[in-house]
Structure prediction request, 662 residues.
Amino acid sequence: PSGADHPNMSVDPSLLTPYKNTGASEASLRQISEDAFYVVNEVVMKRLGHLPILKGDFHLLPPKVQRFIAEKAELMRPRGIFICDGTQHEADDIIHKLIERGMLSKLEAYENNYICRTDPKDVARVESKTWMVTKEKHQTVCRTAEGVEPIMGHWMSPESLSTELDSRFPGCMAGRTMYVIPFSMGPIGGPLSKIGVQLTDSNYVVLSMRVMTRVCNSVWDALGDNDFVRCIHSVGLPRPVKQRVINHWPCNPERVLIAHRPPEREIWSFGSGYGGNSLLGKKCFALRIASNIAYDEGWMAEHMLIMGVTRPCGREHFIAAAFPSACGKTNLAMLEPTLPGWKVRCVGDDIAWMKFGEDGRLYAINPEAGFFGVAPGTSNRTNPMAVATFQKNSIFTNVAETTTGEYYWEGLEEDYKDKDPEIINWLGEKWKIGDPGVAAHPNSRFAAPASQCPIIHPDWESPKGVPIEAIIFGGRRPAGVPLVFETHSWEHGVFTAACLKSETTAAAEHKGKNVMHDPFAMRPFMGYNFGKYLQHWLDLKTEKRQVPKIYHVNWFRKDADGKFLWPGFGDNIRVIDWIIRRLDGEANLGVETAIGTVPAPGSVDMSGLGDIKWDELMSVPADYWKEDAKEVRAFLEAQVGPDLPKEVRHEMDEQEKKINSL
Ligand code: SAT
Ligand code: MN
Prediction:
């Protein structure tokens, strides 16, 4: 038969690589390509053997996807293959099955809301078991000082990876279904969007990926000649299971491994079903792998929310903001302004893919389709828009529930005060408000469709993105760091972002509270050598481009009694207002300091706020910053060393001089 007649006639272009530049004619290349198509398909079919296809039409998939599935099925030996189409009908079937099995239960107080508890050993991202695999170590990590462990990037050699994979993946899906999830990060077919295919044996992952990414059949059409990111995930517990499965949540905490192969655009995840470890579109793809693609293609993949802010005069500005996990990105993205006449609309709450357009402006898309937000602390007081978003079609993980079918977590005490509800905590035990311990795990999450957010921006799915005018960096800084400052230049902004620090949170496995470096809020998500990443940022500025202004904020400064100096939440609009008036060129708003421009007294609208200790909130204490300058220099020398771009080193030198003359 002629391959040209076949509906799927298209071979993985890599198959033709050996024939390129051999002088072969177009016609013979086409013939080779057709032959290869049939040979490959025969191999594929042999590999699949008699494996049942439980859903979908394998033969209609693009050949390169068939090959990927067949190879991995041969390796992991599932009992069957289920090709997802992302429909509601499909989700309903899976939900039904999971409820029967006891893994999921319905929260009766809402429409289509479900709750699930993990094995308590599987509750957060595990950075210590997350790796980037490159041939050369310094593709992944910087040339750190003698004896210094790199904290940005975690390198593994391809040889070690082979050993690690070989000891985990063969037969790991025995007795389980292998789901094939086609998904798009960003609007399907958009110029900034990318496609992934995730294989997984977790149906919780199937349900969550449906919320967090765009899963549907048209992804196959959009794939065409494009490459796709290969995502391979297993909970790592083949059947028959030898250990007790806790909460019907299969996982294998002792054997967790999350490995990325950037050149191959491939992700391997084993042993965990939790969030960032298993929803591979999120941190693994949209940050770690995407930052590599972005480096190659000249754009940026960042851990940032995107918001549209409209001034009372009607003019709208788009802002991106980077904060470490669990520092309030979701809250800022959905801020309800306490200043009259202002409007905030959300484009994204966690990840931004940004590329300069022909017009020299920086355009951003939110590659995700849902919010995976921290539940505790989210309430009608702190984030009414998030609360409205997760009233239906949402999945709650490791929160508590009331016996009347409502969710519950720390921060909802007020709402439930008069009800004195009976609560089942995240461990499945009876619990009452006031009891010792917590009801919900501090890193418990909601996964909700972004489209349900009442203030989702009308352009949130615009394929070309929204134009960013300011980038904000921030963290939890209890001492020394003013509420807001503007950096002097793109280069100074890059230096400031490289120095980003924050108190640790429950989103990762770190214990206790201490201030840790988290450059660009990307430390756990850095996809390649951080020095190269800094250089990439610097190089993005060209004469023809309007680079955004860069700001630093700190909502979390405390007074001597340990009380927050700033109310935060909806009142953060007052800081955004100051930033936007700076962008618009309003005069007399700033005071120069050694670290940047802080608000001049009276330049931030404090109307109706009551007693705010302005001086304590805005001060740049000399002692603190002298210490900090030393610490930052030591950090960058040790961690980035010779990979530190000279422009950043220059900014460090200049700032240190200014600080030392305070
Ligand atoms: O668990 S996730 O990595 O998806 C969430 C986060 O840490 O930001
Ligand atoms: Mn995040």
